[in-house]
Amino acid sequence: MAPDRLVVGFDLDMTLIDSRPGIAAVWDAVSSRSGVFVDSALAVSRLGPPLAQEAAAWFPPERVAEAVALYRGLYPDTAITTSALMGGAAEAIAAVRKHGGRVLVITAKNTPHAKLHVDHLGLDVDEVVGDVWAEQKGEVLREHGATIFVGDHLGDIRGARAAGALALGVPTGGLSTQELREAGADVVLADLADFSFWLDDHMLERRLAALESELAGLGSVLVAFSGGADSAFLLAAAVRALGPDKVAAATAVSASLPDAELEPAREFAASLGVVHHTPRTDEMSREGYRANAGDRCYFCKAELVEVLAPLAEELGITHIATGTNADDGRAGFRPGIRAAAERGAVTPLKDAGFTKEQVREASLRWGLPTWDKPAAACLSSRIAYGLTITPARLARVEQAEVALRAVLAEAGVPVRNLRVRDVGDAARVEVDAELVELVTALEDANEAVLAAGFDVVEVDPKGFRSGSMNELLPNPQRYR
Predict the structure, then answer these.
(1) Of 136, 143, 131, whose CA–CA distance to 159 is shortest?
(2) Whether the Cβ atoms of residue 24 and residue 40 lie closer than 8 Å to each other
(3) Is residue 1, in this structure, part of any structural domain at all?
(4) Which residues pair with 17 in a beta bridge?
(5) What is the rounded CA–CA span in Å between residue 145 and residue 395?
(6) From CA 131, how far away is CA 404, in angstroms rounded?
(7) 443 and 474 in a common domain
(8) Looking at the structure, do residues 178 and 59 belong to the same domain, yes or no?
(9) How many Cβ atoms sit within 10 Å of the Cβ of residue 359?
């Protein structure tokens, strides 16, 4: 099962914002109006605890409430506009957003003033909770399901520990790295600029653990192995979780599979000690596939899973797994995912929350040769919707792509992503956006595609993008 949604809490003063100039100015004004000396420089050197605690250091007990009221009355007009973001603060919040997480600000500062700071600096947060300190912060963290709390003070570490959350310290508020560690911080960063790198690594480890648990619970899997980065990583993860005897790979052979994909798939499976099967699929026999409407992928995936099901039964394997990742699951147009799910296929990468970026990062860590393999959808994805899928059309596209890659390699053009889209008698070539002008001007590239059987060739000025054929559908939602 996927990890729970990420929720991260941040302290405010000296963690997300530097509010010292404004707070010093407020204390100076309080001192002037009350007639009680307050060393504002000393006061701002120990931000973190509740306001009343600092006031008690300067005022007699009977005047603390008066000092707090005066301070808070002066604060909005004196302290807000002089505050500034700490280095890396905006990037830290963006990192949480990147992983689909929620952001909380939890601070001893009163809530209205904290919100004024957040609004003034444009911080993208979900909720601001003020007037809490130390273990009280832990209560808020638990209430919101936060698993990480970032702060600069010992009280922040105490709050995280009380909630059972990871305590991340930043030595930007006066405490040293050593002091934060001795207080129980699980991690001490140099500053918030390091947070995004730490979070990327933390989330990857978290999802690797979830994936291992997911796969181990399946008992045995037959991986629908296209040879691409996702299914290759899934196959390697399954072997790690279950051992090669409980895992098999199946690459469906048909007119829609480029010939160049099969041998690398065999070699990859063999490198893992996994038996590689190559059953034939006949999606061309399905009218819905040949018709090539917006739901073509539904019929292709239905054919695949229905061919793999008896193979899995013959092998004594309990589950068929596809390489669908979390990004695929969030996309609005994936009829193939629906077809596989209806036929009982499982999606361990998606269920563990793995994004495409995380698949590539984990594959690189594991030394998998597919970690940077370009996306390689089936040949039928090159045929414009509404044009009948035929073996001849698929062969023409494959021939054009092979020839074009050869020409570009000979010309020293470092193409990574390349598609030849069949839009009728014309071919629409998509390459990496930065190469569009170069390929457009290369006459040999044009000739290579024409030689495959197209009458006209055009290079798409927008460059390569996965699923570009979907842009031509009038209403993709009807095919979901």
Answers:
(1) 136
(2) yes
(3) no
(4) 13, 85
(5) 53
(6) 65
(7) yes
(8) no
(9) 28
Residues 268 and 344 in one domain: yes
Q: Which residue, chain included where needed, has tokens 């090159």?
A: 382
Mean pLDDT over 241-265 rounds to: 93
Q: Rg (Cα) of the chain, in Å, rounded?
A: 29
In tens, the pLDDT along 71-101 reads 999 999 999 999 999 999 999 999 999 999 9
Residue from 83, 129, 82 nearest 106 by CA: 129
> What pLDDT is recorded for position 476?
44
Quote the CA–CA distance of 363 and 358 in Å, as a whole number. Answer: 8
Q: Which of 16, 29, 132, 148 is nearest to 84 (CA)?
A: 16
d(CA 160, CA 149): 6
For residue 457, what are the β-bridge partners? 427
Domain that residue 364 falls in: 219-376
Q: Check which CATH number belongs to the domain holding 37 and give it.
A: 1.10.150
DSSP notation for 19-48: -HHHHHHHHHHHHHHH-----HHHHHTT--
Tokens of 317: 């394997």
The CA-atom distances, in angstroms, between 126 and each of 8, 37, 180, 268, 341 are 10, 39, 27, 44, 34
pLDDT one-digit tens code per residue, 39-71: 999 999 999 999 999 999 999 999 999 999 999
- The predicted structure's pLDDT at residue 469: 59
Specify the amino acid at residue 462. Answer: K
Is residue 90 one of the residues assigned to a domain? yes
Phi, psi of 456 (to 5 degrees): -140, 145
- Tens-digit pLDDT profile for residues 226-248: 999 999 999 999 999 999 999 99
Note the maximum CA span of the chain. Answer: 93
Q: What is the pTM of this model?
A: 0.84
- Residue found by looking up tokens 């808070």 in the block: 72
The partner residues of 427 in beta bridges, in order of sequence, read: 422, 457
Q: Are residues 232 and 354 located together in one domain of the fold? A: yes
CA atoms within 13 A of residue 137's CA, in its CB half-sphere: 34
